[in-house]
Amino acid sequence: MIYNLPNLCDHKNMNEKKIDFDKILDQIRVFAPATVANMICGFDILGFAVDYPGDEVNMYRVAEPGVRIRSIQGDDGRLPLDADKNTVSACVKMLLKHLGIEKELGVEIELIKHMPIGSGLGSSSASTVAGLFAINTLLGNPLSKEELLPFCVEGERLACGHGHADNVAPALMGGITLVRGYEPLDVIALPVPEELYAGVVFPKVDVPTRDARQLIKEKVLLKEAVTQWGNIAGLVAGLYRKDYDLISRSMQDVLIEPTRAILIPEFYAMKQIALDAGALSFGISGSGPSVVAIARGQEIAEQAAARIQQHLTDCEIDSFKYVSAVNVGGPKVL
Amino acid sequence: MIYNLPNLCDHKNMNEKKIDFDKILDQIRVFAPATVANMICGFDILGFAVDYPGDEVNMYRVAEPGVRIRSIQGDDGRLPLDADKNTVSACVKMLLKHLGIEKELGVEIELIKHMPIGSGLGSSSASTVAGLFAINTLLGNPLSKEELLPFCVEGERLACGHGHADNVAPALMGGITLVRGYEPLDVIALPVPEELYAGVVFPKVDVPTRDARQLIKEKVLLKEAVTQWGNIAGLVAGLYRKDYDLISRSMQDVLIEPTRAILIPEFYAMKQIALDAGALSFGISGSGPSVVAIARGQEIAEQAAARIQQHLTDCEIDSFKYVSAVNVGGPKVL
Fold this sequence. Notes:
2 copies of one chain form a homodimer.
Chain A (H helix, E strand, L loop, with lengths): L1 E2 L23 E11 L8 E17 L3 E8 L13 H12 L7 E8 L9 H16 L6 H16 L7 H6 L2 E7 L2 E6 L5 E8 L5 H7 L3 E3 H20 L2 H7 L6 H4 L6 H10 L4 E4 L6 E6 L1 H17 L4 E7 L6 E2 L1
Parallel strand pairs in A: 4-5
Antiparallel strand pairs in A: 1-7, 2-3, 2-13, 3-5, 3-6, 6-7, 8-11, 8-12, 10-11
Helix pairs in contact in A: 1-2, 1-3, 2-3, 6-7, 9-10
């Protein structure tokens, strides 16, 4: 599916997407899922959503026009309440402007974060997707999910400085997504083998996305790039074939992991534990520090994650653990 | 499918693969197809076979033990008749040694080349595959195709100095193949959308594989590698979905083509002609100088190839033209 990224705030669609103010809902509550970007080998192009954790947006229609943040929970006070600076409200404003109703409609937002910021689980993407899905649903779905995606990408640009789609695409579309390219934005939904589970562990150490990106070298060996794209092609084929052995052989990252693993305590010990527990693969979720054991079946994912967490506890590192199937629906109204 | 590449000449399989000398055929004639390695975006990992052209091996069982080349046609005298130096006979000897019967069996080979050497169409691979498929069939198929593949890769190493599988794998297996990796050799058959046709044009200029490889830089920009592997993943998904638009968008090479195109006269003019004729994509076949227009349907492939050839004629460059569907059977007994 190709997405156009025009000037998102222009009014050209105002008449096409006529909003019936009588039908706007008074309130809505939306959950959007966390995501595991890269899916081990597919740096910047692959990602998948998980059922758990995720962020929630509670949105209210109010009389006074404008977009405001009412409250934020679960962010330890790290996110701005200023509606122009907060990514969620900024994206909602952008959408209202695009629809030409930003001066008429008033909405207030409660943001409830159920996952840590800077965890490598697409925390900002989940919030952005929840906010945009919420306002679109509140308005009676003037835009399709496909039409919402460019706004989500813009939100990622506001939050992280990079308009990457490898978190927002799976958070919005659900499942496993491939971002084939950006010029134009071209997102493909890949099949989800139903026994695929993720055991995610977030060691409570701080690895800002920007730092994790800066570590990565601008140039790579062609030989290693060939190994990487052989694996990426193998993974895509494996997903279509539901061939868990092929998926396992393919989910290896020879390019990015060796650099980013340095920032994550006990990375290689955790990897060995996950593989010993029978995981298909193990690696960094997004830019880390969360790590993910990808497994065939819930039980192995549970075991791998539990053993990894125990190891971190033994090393006196606090952590969170989340075990989930690959999410197939994307955001949902609660 | 994972292939082991053990010491190919050891005798450990001698007893398992017992050859019944009474059942060995007296003569066999085998055709093996030309191949388009890389498939535009998949440098060193993707390739497909075409129905036409291809090489033929005519093999005779003779009384005197040993492997000999009886004659070679179509090589302009460029290939060695010495059975130890000719890749086809050297591979046949290797297989006989592996089976432990090299001192008992005598075979003589006629090699008939139907495509130019150094054309970028997997000329040496087609001959190697024809030879190995011929001897295996002559012997009553002691090895499966999967078991033959490592011998074909070894033949490629003898011929080109590199043990690449992106030509021999499709030549032997037919269809579109992915070489996921080499340690161990892991080859995946990808689906072949039935309307996929190739219009191949070989401009008669000399681009030795070794030179074409040496032009390529050891390091590449990660940004460009990401673009490339997005395309590779998109192509694999497109093949499974039979989505010709996605296949078309994905078959773009930002990394290798800009360098290798320099060696091919009129490359960008030919590319424009192919795309104007409605081809899904256009690029270099293997290391060139053959070029390929990949099209949906025979007619467009024919038109693209014919117009490209006409352009080369206008530029006073001789050429050969081959239009074919993707071959799905691999080598065949004639």
